[in-house]
């Protein structure tokens, strides 16, 4: 994608707009952010009619395609297709649900007679097709009505994929039943309940599984016992398996095992209730009981491999893509971090909050985290329009723009972000977070500013409404709440539990009151869990810490101007020890002459000349020979800005000695390194000693080599210390 140049934001070309222009602008934005189509009542009827038109030919294939009737299966002739008998028939038709005669087998007299009896009991003519069509149409209508209760199941794409999948399965099962001797119980019908539950929710999974079980039970010919076994299989699978499980294989195998036990037990009980004795297990390889236990086991093995295919069909993002987008090295994420660092920190904090809350309500935490990373992608295109990206003291461009133009600039981070994301190939589920986290709420700040200015253009509240749609899923609604809570939590002066609780409740209730959560599918219990999670996260994010010793020492030193000795740990002492002993140990504060001599004898580690130390001794002696009456208070000498840290120890404090004579040549620049500790005293390595001379009256006279006795150095000879 093209790189956005780093420059100050350019305001929109028009400085004012009318209400008609605003309406046209919102119409253009609606094209950028289309709403996902949902199934209405009339569209549900259309889908049901189409579904019935697809499955009716499959159910009645042996009648209109193979012309099944009395005399079709002739004695001592090969059967052209497999003929089956219902499992729960009466009289001569009760054969335990087995195959009457398989395709290609030579039919005996009894088999031919039984096939003729089955054909005679089946209605013929147009009535058969109309009855099957009407029955499947009713089942399809009930399916579309029930599945619309789900926030994801009401989408047209989900319902079309579900109905088309069942129709294709019906065709495939009919081909297998007519050409082989396999039992209908072997069909892994439970996979149609497992996969939608794992990808979408339990409402979609159960509805899809139940409809598929009823359609399959009509295949050979209609069998109430077969329908009951398939319903038990799909219901057990859909109820046991978890929604959006983290460990998919474990969830699928667990559901498969439970479903196998339930289906096998149901077959045993059903056979006993119908025939009065348990099923014959002397030939288990050809027993329907084994077939009833095999179907769920196959479904458990197919669920996870089929999962990505179903996700692509219904428009959901796969786990592999989420993992790839979660990488912080993604080019779009790097763009956000580099061009809008304040927005990026906000997104990171949101991601942590939202993922914890998503796990609390059983939503897709990884999807919410990735959505939080990308939701403000548009802000990286014009970052200076947003306060979190302004430097301290920097003027906001909104100060010189009309409120309606500022509103357009804010809205652009939604629309331009969507365009950029689609150009980069981001999945639509990620794009949803970019416009649904604001929904269609009102930009209240600029609407209030417009009214304060008298609203000269006659704009309405709708002109300041975000060009998005309310959250359509639990994940997008959760991110919308976290976005507002995280931003508002930064304004708390005192983040105590009462203030945090009031803030979270106000934001959650505000979005609920404005209808922003109506289509998200969040229950009141979900909102309570989300609120509790956000309160705990904000409270722990504002945790306290104890002060480090160097912080406390720095505060004490700044509070007491007469302190003679202040210790503070060197900033690099936690990482390394000094390379060598470059300074003498600081003397006690009472021995002023010793301290002065030690300061004057400091050698610059990068130079071998002793001119600096000689100049220091000259200045020290001059100060010492001064008469007491001539001594007067002098201001603290300022640090020469030309001083720079030494290369040997960049973390050390540097000292500038006062000049003795301005005409004595260039000033001597010396660094006062940290006092290196002796080998047996490691604690001295963590402190910098700031030497401050006591008042002259407290300093006893001393004698330095080559100098006459005199009073102590005046305050003009004090050492100025500058910490870098």
Q: What ranges have pLDDT less than 50 throughout 5 or more consecutive residues? A: 1-16, 89-96, 562-566, 570-576, 581-724
What summary fits the major beta sheet? 2 strands, antiparallel
Helix fraction by DSSP (H/I, runs of at least 4): 40-55%
- E-strand count: 4
State the shape: elongated
Derived from helix and strand composition plus strand pairing, the structural class reads mainly alpha
Total number of helices: 24
Report mean pLDDT, rounded to a whole number. 75
Determine Rg (CA atoms, Å). Answer: 42 Å
- Assembly form of the protein: single chain
Work out the strand percent. under 5%
**N-to-C order of helices and strands:** HHHEEHHHHHHHHHHHHHHHHHHHHHEE
Strand order of the largest sheet: 1-2
In whole angstroms, how far apart are the ends?
A: 43 Å
Short structural description:
With 724 residues, the chain is mainly alpha-helical. The protein contains 24 helices and four strands. The model is unreliable at 1-16, 89-96, 562-566, 570-576 and 581-724 (pLDDT under 50).
How would you summarize the topology of this molecule?
Blueprint: H1 19-32, H2 41-59, H3 61-64, E1 83-84, E2 99-101, H4 109-121, H5 126-147, H6 156-179, H7 191-199, H8 202-217, H9 224-240, H10 248-275, H11 288-314, H12 319-325, H13 331-339, H14 341-361, H15 365-374, H16 403-423, H17 428-436, H18 444-452, H19 474-489, H20 497-513, H21 524-541, H22 549-559, H23 592-600, H24 611-625, E3 654-656, E4 720-722
Antiparallel strand pairs: 1-2, 3-4
Helix pairs in contact: 2-5, 2-6, 5-8, 6-8, 7-8, 7-9, 7-11, 8-9, 9-10, 10-11, 13-14, 14-15, 14-19, 14-21, 15-17, 15-19, 16-17, 16-18, 19-20, 20-21, 23-24
């Amino acid at each position: 994608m093209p790189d956005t140049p780093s420059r100050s934001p350019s305001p929109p070309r028009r400085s004012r707009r009318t209400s008609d222009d605003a309406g046209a602008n919102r119409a253009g934005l609606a094209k950028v952010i289309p709403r996902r189509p949902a199934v209405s009542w009339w569209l549900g009827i259309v889908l049901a009619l189409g579904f019935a038109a697809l499955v009716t030919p499959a159910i009645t294939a042996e009648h209109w395609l193979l012309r099944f009737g009395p005399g079709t299966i002739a004695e001592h002739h090969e059967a052209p297709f497999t003929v089956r008998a219902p499992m729960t028939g009466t009289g001569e038709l009760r054969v335990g649900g087995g195959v009457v005669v398989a395709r290609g087998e030579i039919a005996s007299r009894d088999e031919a007679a039984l096939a003729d009896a089955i054909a005679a009991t089946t209605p013929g003519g147009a009535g058969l097709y109309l009855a099957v069509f009407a029955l499947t149409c009713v089942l399809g209508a009930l399916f579309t009505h029930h599945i619309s209760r789900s926030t994801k199941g009401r989408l047209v794409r989900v319902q079309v994929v579900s109905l088309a999948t069942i129709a294709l399965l019906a065709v495939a099962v009919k081909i297998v039943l007519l050409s082989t001797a396999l039992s209908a119980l072997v069909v892994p019908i439970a996979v149609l309940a497992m996969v939608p539950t794992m990808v979408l929710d339990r409402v979609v999974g159960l509805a899809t599984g139940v409809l598929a079980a009823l359609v399959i039970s009509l295949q050979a010919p209609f069998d109430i016992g077969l329908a009951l076994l398939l319903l038990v299989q799909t219901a057990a699978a859909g109820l046991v398996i978890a929604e959006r499980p983290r460990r998919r294989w474990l969830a699928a195998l667990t559901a498969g095992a439970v479903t196998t036990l339930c289906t096998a037990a149901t077959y045993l009980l059903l056979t006993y209730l119908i025939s009065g004795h348990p099923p014959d297990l002397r030939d288990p390889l050809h027993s329907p009981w084994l077939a009833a236990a095999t179907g769920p086991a196959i479904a458990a093995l197919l669920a996870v491999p089929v999962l990505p295919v179903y996700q692509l069909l219904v428009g959901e993002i796969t786990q592999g893509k989420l993992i790839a987008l979660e990488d912080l090295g993604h080019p779009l994420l790097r763009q956000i971090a580099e061009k809008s660092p304040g927005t990026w920190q906000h997104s990171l904090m949101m991601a942590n909050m939202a993922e914890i809350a998503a796990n609390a309500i059983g939503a897709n935490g990884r999807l919410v985290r990735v959505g939080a990373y990308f939701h403000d992608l548009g802000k990286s295109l014009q970052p200076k329009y947003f306060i979190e990206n302004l430097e301290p003291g920097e003027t906001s461009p909104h100060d010189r723009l009309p409120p309606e133009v500022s509103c357009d600039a804010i809205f652009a981070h939604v629309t331009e972000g969507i365009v950029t994301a689609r150009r980069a190939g981001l999945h639509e589920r990620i794009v949803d977070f970019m416009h649904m986290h604001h929904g269609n709420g009102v930009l209240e700040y600029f609407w209030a500013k417009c009214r304060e200015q008298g609203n000269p253009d006659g704009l309405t509240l709708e002109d300041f409404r975000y060009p998005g749609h309310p959250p359509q899923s639990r994940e997008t609604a959760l991110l919308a709440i976290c976005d507002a809570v995280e931003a508002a939590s930064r304004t708390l002066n005192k983040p105590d539990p009462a203030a945090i609780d009031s803030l979270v409740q106000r934001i959650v209730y505000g979005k609920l009151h404005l209808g922003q959560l109506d289509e998200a599918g969040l229950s009141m219990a979900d909102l309570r869990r989300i609120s509790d999670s956000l309160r705990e996260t904000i409270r722990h994010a504002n945790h306290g810490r104890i002060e480090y010793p160097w912080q406390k020492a720095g505060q004490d030193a700044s509070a007491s101007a007469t302190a003679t000795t202040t210790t503070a740990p060197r900033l690099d002492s936690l990482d390394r020890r000094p390379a060598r002993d470059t300074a003498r140990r600081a003397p006690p504060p009472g021995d002023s002459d010793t301290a002065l001599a030690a300061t004057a004898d400091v050698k610059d580690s990068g130079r071998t000349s002793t001119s600096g130390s000689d100049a220091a001794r000259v200045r020290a002696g001059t100060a010492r020979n001064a008469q007491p009456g001539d001594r007067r208070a002098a201001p603290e000498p300022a640090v020469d800005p030309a001083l720079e840290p030494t290369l040997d120890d960049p973390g050390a404090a540097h000292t500038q000695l006062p000049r003795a004579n301005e005409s004595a040549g260039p000033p001597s620049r010396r660094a006062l390194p940290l006092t290196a500790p002796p080998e047996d005293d490691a604690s001295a390595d963590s402190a910098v000693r700031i030497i401050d001379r006591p008042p002259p009256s407290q300093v006893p006279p001393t004698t330095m080599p080559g100098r006459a006795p005199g009073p102590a150095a005046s305050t003009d000879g004090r050492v100025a210390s500058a910490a870098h």
